[in-house]
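Exercise 7. Given the components listed, write out the predicted structure of the assembled complex. Treat all entries as one system.
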Amino acid sequence: MKLNVMVVDDSAVMRAMVKKSLSLCGIELGEVVEAANGVEALEKLASSWVDLALIDVNMPKMNGEELLNHIREDEATVPLNVIVISTEGSETRISRLKSKGARFLRKPFSPENLGNQIREMLGETHGDGSGNQALPVSGPDF
Amino acid sequence: MAMDLETKLYQSAARTFEEVCFLLTLREPGPELPAASEREIGVRIGFDGVFHGALEITCPASIAEHLANSMLGGDKPTAQQRQDAFGEISNVITGNLLPSIAGDKLVFDVTAPATLEGQQPLPWGPSARVRLRSDEGPIDLVLYIEDYDLGARS
Amino acid sequence: MVSATKLLVVGMADAKHSREPGQTLVTYALGSCIALVIYDPVAKVGGMLHAMLPQSSIDPAKAEVHPAVFVDTGVPLLFLESYKLGAKKERLVVKVAGGACTHGDPEKDMFQIGKRNVLMLKKLLWTNNVPLAASDVAGTESRTVFLDLETGRIRIRTPRGEHEL
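Answer.
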């Protein structure tokens, strides 16, 4: 099954890095939707099917923690798989996020870290676990 | 004791540059204030929790371009992406630095990174200053912590 | 144990490829050098690079003649040559070993060649959309790396013993 993923981060460069990591982490990817803050994420969640949301914490308009609260309060999005990807270093805040059913991945992270988190979360139901998949052959050198 | 803070700042920064931008950085001994000509690109990120302060990072524009290019995986960055990438780097460094100073139980709110251009100087003296040397050129980091008792905490 | 007759030795600053079943690629005593190992499990094509330094810009003339000396010229060579033997980029399993600091405290190593080699490799793979399946890098131990072309298994031998990558 292909996985539809939403990437929520106010930094366009970080969204690009997360998307690239997704393409390299051995998960069979479907559609990838982007949002720059929590408000935008909720709008897009209402209009697209998302299997997994990767969300940042510090964002304008609505931060990641508030977004997670909204996700868990809405019947339609309660079961959504969420991984918070953040620079957050406070165990107190991380525990709070985890208590709301989110996993946590600390920046900086590698595609391998991301793949492992996703596979653990989904119980190894996606990808072959080898870290390999069809990749866009777009590199300039090889 | 202040030296310890500088070591923490160096370690947080070096790890970030390696893991996010594939750039090896080494610490320059006894950093001086960066020359004005080298402070072409700068970013400030504030934090507020058990103590209050900010981190400023400056470097020549060519390095900021190189960092953004590495993060994007080879695509030539726009000026906006360059600033965005530099802000994200400062965010990651701050996120790693604060728990190394205050422990991982305390909560800090971190502001969005803002360009240094046109900003007022901070009212406090630097608490730690580190100059990093890299193959691409120098990168300067200055940490400001208001009323921070370095002797008691570091 | 590996039969000596089936070993194909990859020397320092060298890259070798093979699709001979039963053959094993090996490179000995990696210190700060890195071994990049690629394997296509369908075509059973394998390749191994033993690169010494990160960047060819320090000696472009040497890189022209011996591209495998440098990570940034050796890695493209390793991939491109494997395609000629039937490997496909999207099937390649990519692993790396080495990048150690074998002469003392890594913190005091002025040149950090091992770390620079690994960083250059990771940057190249990221830029070229190639996932890194496994790595065994850094530390202070010397490593010898074997790639079994029949199975794709990679074994690493250090002074402390042997393990699979």
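Discussion: Chain C has a mean pLDDT of 93. Residues 22 and 150 of chain C are 6 Å apart (CA to CA).
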